[in-house]
Amino acid sequence: xxxxxxxxxxxxxxxxxxxxxxxxxxxxxxxxxxxxxxxxxxxxxxxxxxxxxxxxxxxxxxxxxxxxxxxxxxxxxxxxxxxxxxxxxxxxxxxxxxxxxxxxxxxxxxxxxxxxxxxxxxxxxxxxxxxxxxxxxxxxxxxxxxxxxxxxxxxxxxxxxxxxxxxxxxxxxxxxxxxxxxxxxxxxxxxxxxxxxxxxxxxxxxxxxxxxxxxxxxxxxxxxxxxxxxxxxxxxxxxxx
Amino acid sequence: xxxxxxxxxxxxxxxxxxxxxxxxxxxxxxxxxxxxxxxxxxxxxxxxxxxxxxxxxxxxxxxxxxxxxxxxxxxxxxxxxxxxxxxxxxxxxxxxxxxxxxxxxxxxxxxxxxxxxxxxxxxxxxxxxxxxxxxxxxxxxxxxxxxxxxxxxxxxxxxxxxxxxxxxxxxxxxxxxxxxxxxxxxxxxxxxxxxxxxxxxxxxxxxxxxxxxxxxxxxxxxxxxxxxxxxxxxxxxxxxxxxxxxxxxxxxxxxxxxxxxxxxxxxxxxxxxxxxxxxxxxxxxxxxxxxxxxxxxxxxxxxxxxxxxxxxxxxxxxxxxxxxxxxxxxxxxxxxxxxxxxxxxxxxxxxxxxxxxxxxxxxxxxxxxxxxxxxxxxxxxxxxxxxxxxxxxxxxxxxxxxxxxxxxxxxxxxxxxxxxxxxxxxxxxxxxxxxxxxxxxxxxxxxxxxxxxxxxxxxxxxxxxxxxxxxxxxxxxxxxxxxxxxxxxxxxxxxxxxxxxxxxxxxxxxxxxxxxxxxxxxxxxxxxxxxxxxxxxxxxxxxxxxxxxxxxxxxxxxxxxxxxxxxxxx
Lengths: 241, 570
Fold this sequence. Notes:
By secondary structure, chain A is α/β, with parallel strands linked by helices. Chain A has helices at 42-49, 71-76, 93-103, 108-121, 137-149, 167-182, 194-200, 218-225, 229-236; strands spanning 2-9, 19-26, 31-35, 57-62, 65-66, 78-81, 155-159, 186-190, 203-208, 211-217. Chain A has a 6-stranded mixed beta sheet with strand order 6-7-8-3-9-10, with helices on both faces. In chain A, strand 4 (57-62) and strand 5 form a beta hairpin. The radius of gyration of chain A is 18 Å and the shape is globular. Chain B folds into 2 domains: 2-13 and 39-296, no CATH class; 317-567, no CATH class. Chain B is globular and about 80 Å long. Chain B starts with a helix and ends with a helix. The chains are: A alpha/beta, B mainly alpha.
């Protein structure tokens, strides 16, 4: 479960808030899609949820743990797939996964089992002995996904997870997201691909200029507006007619 | 031809371009680099001047003998060769820009020739310096005619040819060897350093053998310097006449420069140019297939090797953080090289100091032996050496100076790990201290062995270096955390003018003052009254202060870690 209460964040001396009084609650067993145009505040929100950035005001709870009060406990419940591929390029894939596993305190047997499981799923087993720097964009993405899952997190946060993935891997990822949500975990992901959000998510939120402008289940949105998610997205972000 | 010239221009200019983010930044960097070169030039000026004066006298004594001139030309070429092999390996054979050049509609021989030309242009710079310091003073000393000076620019153009071509032949097997370790930048770096050191040793050996012939019949150099020099030069001439055939283009060039008639000069010059051109063709024909093979290897390396199996061994958090950090650093070519250089610099300096101070003079006594006679040697020497080593050690350990800046864009990973920030910093400082411990241990062993200090003083110095190093690195780590330089593309350029190495030296200076303040009264009391316990008290107090300093610095760093980590916005 993720709870954000009145969260705001301004970068440096910028006049405009990157995130402005955001209040949001995402329950267990739910896939939440976070939409918004470029620079709307999606990544900033995700960085605050994962503990990379500290909010200027407001509070964030991960599975009932306030991230400001106990950042270590909160972070250990989160698995994060970043939108950048600035992961440790001079490590081998397996070394990177072992490092992440150790940081999250995963027992060796579980770590081995999870690496096998997810490396098989994303067909990465043969490449884990190679340097991350030699990986393609998609392979780095897959490695980030595996790394985010090896400690079996209660909250899975994915920032633009489908970028660079081949169709098979994208399909497997969507299936995995559903499986994790069905087993009681929370999945929070941001994407530009509205079709995917439409197909995968239980609920969606749309952010624009740092403010949450719409949040509901897909069915409710459709019933009330009788329009496609794309049209709704364009309307609430000021692009539609 | 147009493609060839464009490539030469591109490759030549590219190596001097800075990756500045703005025009202003670029200008600042250019000014900084210029200042650095001026400082370096000023540092080397006394050496260059003394060499020039020696060569001037050599010219005076020899009267412009062509064999002596050839010896000097060989000296110039030796230097060009020594620096050139490394440059040829990096610029020509170890292909780093294959992906950028392969898709161009340019044939491989043209690219290869362009790369060779760039290597040649680079070597012209070294040659220019050697001509200025060696051949010019020789001409002045020997009172050779104007034709010698008129031909110097031609010599400047021809001198790099032979070493460059020999360098290309030597560089081929070495490049193949280095390419085998393309995946392991540590071994690659070590190999490069070993090759460089071997070439330097070879050069020194040859110069030593040729320049310090001992067959003088006129006794000591001090008794009759001119006769001594004449003997040496005569023997040198004899030796060179035997090996001249191996450097025939040089022989022809020198003959052109020192010849007596215009026609002879021109004939020798043309012959020399012809021989150099023939050699160039030969080496081009031999090394082009090798270049193609290296290019192929680089282009093929995109396909990854299959992995047969892997091991998962979890360790403690701090140990894993240290291990991962170490791997990342040593596998990065720039950071790996800096760390390695930081590791060897102190032992190398100690050995050099020994050669400067430890070799016996004509009377059979060395400076170190003279000092060791003093009863205060064992009291003062360790403290002085310790102060010097602490300053140098702390200022050169890249692992402890920029632990946060080197994370670059991956810093977000450390921020989202469920590990206390204090622990992350502790791992970084411990890693830097562990690497420094190896350096310090080697240094202390060398000092004890070469400078004749008692082993227990060596041990005390080691303890003190570790405590001071740990404390200093806590401070530099915190400083780097406060103002990290992130988002870089080139680690070395990013850290130009970075303040941390100065800060480390400043901290070391403060430690040095504290050490001196503690040591001085004890040494004075020891000198006045004798008694080993004064020295024991001195070391116990100073080590105690070192431990206290390390503990306080660690507490400060740990206390502020979360606050400063939180302030980094990525």
